[in-house]
Every structure is written in structure tokens, then in C-alpha cells.
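DM from R.C. (forwarded with permission)

"hey, sorry to bug you on a friday — could you get me a structure for this? deadline for the figure draft is monday and I only need the backbone to look sensible"
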Amino acid sequence: MADILKGKPVAEAIKTELIKKILCLKEKNIFPKLGIIRVGNRADDLFYQGGIKKTCAEINLNLEIFEQPETIESITFENTVKDIAARKDIHGILMFAPLPKQLNEKKIRALIPAEKDVDCLNLESAGKVYADEPNAFPPCTPAACLALLKFYHIPIQGKRCVVLGRSLVVGKPVAMLLLREHGTVTICHSRTENLPQVCREADILIVACGRAKLIKENFVSEKQIVIDVGINQDPDHPNHYFGDVDFEKVEPIVSKITPVPGGIGSITNVILCQHVVKACENLTGKL
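My reply, with the result:
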């Protein structure tokens, strides 16, 4: 039986640290603040917003939500984003995507300054992450993967790390973060030859391919650590979710594994808040 790497203890440890930092900043009349930009009322955006709002309240992080109508014109929205980005009281900005079709998403993402881009929305931010800039903010989900590995004292240096998935949101940035920790990284995808064999050879397998229960017992091996980033809705039970790993078949084989739900997803919101606090420290110079 594998050790279950739950996300909640990781999140709670980070929250405890952030509460202390925010209190210290407030004693100096500095009030870290996250600005969320949301266009329309998509159910997934509202769900994500609700989770962030709850986390912010738990750690006393200031939050302001900028709601815009789904029919907003491009020039109006661009000016709104510019105004939010220019506000000195807002230290981190998160914009929900995708945006409606009338909006030029690539152009609008670029309007968010890298120093306030706490979920790596634009190319400047991504470039800083890939260049190992110390003040760059990687996407929150890859950062959550690294936070979990470090919390459970799982060594990365010298280990063979296989990342299944090459998206800009998870696959590529998590590979960069593993490289930063001196892991030996292989990125796999749907066209990788002998994919099960490559995955089996990993010491650490991170799965972020967006295909429910793709990873079966032939993809894994003993002594392996499996991080499942996937979140897929059960079509027969809308309130049930499962990952990209077939947990019931893989868990008896591997050494350690994250559950879905209750794994990486439990950490992402608190990582977002951690980035906001760090951005506030950077912007105010009060380290």
C-alpha cells in the first residue's frame, strides 16, 4: 500500500507561515492585496473564485474582485486592466480565462505587469520563470507540486523525473521547476514512443495530461512517487472527480501517490496567496 500524499497538511503549513508574514506587514502599514478580474459568470470561474475568497479570509489577505460583463468591448476592458495594474494598493493580479471571443486575450494578458502576475499569465512572466529569475512567479499548480514534494521531504536532486504533459500551464513549467531542483527531467506526451516504459523508469512521475485514468498499472513501478495533477469530472456522477491516474490500480504498486481530489488541488489557492505576499514584499521593499 502506498503512502497517500495529501495536500491539506501542505496548505495548512503554508497558511500558518503566511498569517505571520501578513501580520508583520500590516504592523508596518502594508496591506497585501489580490485583485481578481472576472468577465462574465462562468460556473468554473465562480467556483474557483469562491475557493480563493475563502483562503484569503482564512489568512487575512485583502481581496478585491473586478467583475465585468461578458459583452464588454475590448478597448474598455483593456483600459480597465491597465487601471487595475497601475493601482499601488494591488500587489497581485489574477485574471480568469478563457476570455470572451471579442477580447484579445494574448494582448490583454500582456497588460499585467510581471511583478504582479502571480499565476504566470503572460509571456514576460513565463520567460522569467524559464530564466530562473528569483522574483518570477510560476503558475500556481506547478508550484504546488514542488511545495508538496518539499513538504514530504521527497528528494529531487539527481532523481529521474518524468512529466506527462507539455502544456504551458503545468507540464512545461513543472519541468523547469524540477530542473531548478537538479532533477533529471523527461517531458512526455501523446506521441512519445514506448510511453508506459518511459513512465515506469521514473523515480518521480508527474501526470498532467488531461485524460481521465490514463495511467494504469503498466505505467508505474515499485518505489515510485506519483503526483496526479489531473481533475476530471465523472460523466455519470457530476459531483465526483478523478485524476489522470487510475488510483485504484496504481496505488497498490507505487511507494507514494497523491489523491484526487485532496491532493495538488488543495494547495493551489494557498500558493496563489503566497505569491501575492511575495509580490507585496518585492514591490514595497519590506522583506
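R.C.: lifesaver. The longest strand covers residues 33-39.
me: no worries. Residues 16 and 217 are 37 Å apart (CA to CA).
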